[in-house]
């Protein structure tokens, strides 16, 4: 995520060109190894064990390493060693910029200072950004009024990264009272047996932005050709069902039961109104879609 957040800022400020950013991202894809593959290549896990963890990630909102430790496949020390071998995403991005003769490290640090000032980030905020951990980055891009949605927003981004595109990222979220949507899927999680951040129900929407809904759902379904509109909306509903199912499961583990209603697909204009609608722009490359989180009291 950090590579596009900072990379786009480098493009915006004229430090590099868009094609330079793509080249750097391609280099990262060539060098950054998934933890499961790395664990197998290091002889720490079998292929079967890695596949088991990957399958569990589809039903549990947990990192590969956490699941592997819980299953007894790896120790905390082995995870630490693998993370060192895998490398920090920010440092890998910085090194790729230097290797491509696009920026020197001092120039990059100066750019980071500008990025920090532009976004009014603190020193600890920048450390969170450099971590490339979604659970630490997502709160940086949520307005104060949307912090109640932090958990489900983080779940959306983590699921996009795991199941759609490892480079998927979010932009600055905004709070709305009303918005018009077309080409969208919505799903409601309701009937909580205990208050959930003060809401009696939460509605999640996956909305077309700039070709992002089609691109993201095509990748989600692992199709080679772009989905048509009808299939893309169906897949958007499936994605929401997956995210909400994970969220409902996490609530259930904490003693809160809920009901997940069927997805509702929208192919014509619809107005969404509520006191606090959190609109989260998400990107896969240059393609944008939007997630709406609506809490009702």
Task: Describe the 3D structure.
This protein is an alpha+beta fold. Helices cover 49% and strands 19% of the residues. It contains 13 helices and eight strands. It has helices at 2-12, 18-31, 35-41, 47-57, 64-70, 76-86, 89-99, 105-118, 123-131, 134-137, 150-163, 212-220, 229-253, and strands spanning 169-170, 174-181, 184-190, 201-210, 259-260, 264-266, 270-284, 287-296. Strands 1, 2, 3, 4, 5, 6, 7 and 8 form an eight-stranded antiparallel β-sheet that branches. Strand 7 and strand 8 form a beta hairpin. The chain is globular and about 50 Å long. The mean pLDDT is 90.
Summarize the helix and strand pattern as letters: HHHHHHHHHHHEEEEHHEEEE
Provide mean pLDDT, rounded. Answer: 90
The number of distinct helices, counting runs of at least 4 residues, comes to 13
Q: State the end-to-end CA separation.
A: 33 Å
Quaternary: single chain
Helix content: 40-55%
What general outline do the C-alpha atoms trace?
globular
Query: Any low-confidence stretches, pLDDT <50, length ≥5?
Result: none
């Amino acid at each position: 995520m950090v590579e596009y957040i900072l990379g786009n800022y480098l493009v915006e400020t004229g430090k590099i060109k868009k094609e330079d950013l793509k080249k750097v991202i391609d280099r990262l894809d060539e060098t950054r190894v998934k933890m499961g593959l790395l664990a197998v290549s290091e002889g720490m896990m079998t292929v079967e064990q890695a596949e088991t963890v990957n399958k569990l990630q589809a039903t549990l909102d947990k990192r590969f390493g956490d699941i592997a430790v819980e299953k007894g496949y790896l120790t905390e020390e082995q995870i630490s060693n693998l993370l060192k071998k895998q490398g920090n995403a920010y440092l890998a991005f910085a090194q790729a910029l230097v290797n491509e003769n696009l920026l020197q490290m001092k120039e990059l640090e100066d750019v980071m200072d500008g990025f920090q000032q532009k976004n009014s980030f603190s020193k600890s905020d920048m450390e969170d950004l450099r971590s490339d951990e979604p659970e630490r980055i997502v709160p940086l891009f949520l307005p104060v009024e949307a912090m109640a949605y932090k958990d489900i927003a983080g779940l959306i981004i983590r699921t996009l990264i795991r199941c759609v595109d490892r480079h998927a990222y979010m932009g600055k979220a905004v709070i709305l009272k009303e918005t018009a949507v077309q080409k969208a899927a919505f799903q409601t999680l309701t009937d909580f047996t205990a208050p959930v951040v003060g809401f009696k129900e939460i509605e999640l929407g996956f909305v077309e932005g700039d070709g992002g809904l089609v691109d993201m759902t095509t990748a989600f379904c692992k199709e080679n050709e772009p989905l048509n509109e009808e299939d893309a909306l169906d897949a958007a509903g499936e994605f929401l069902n997956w995210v909400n199912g994970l969220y409902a499961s996490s609530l259930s583990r904490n003693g809160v039961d809920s009901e997940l209603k069927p997805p509702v697909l929208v192919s014509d204009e619809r107005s969404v109104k509520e006191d606090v609608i959190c609109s989260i722009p998400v990107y896969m490359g240059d393609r944008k879609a939007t997630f709406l989180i609506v809490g009702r009291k």
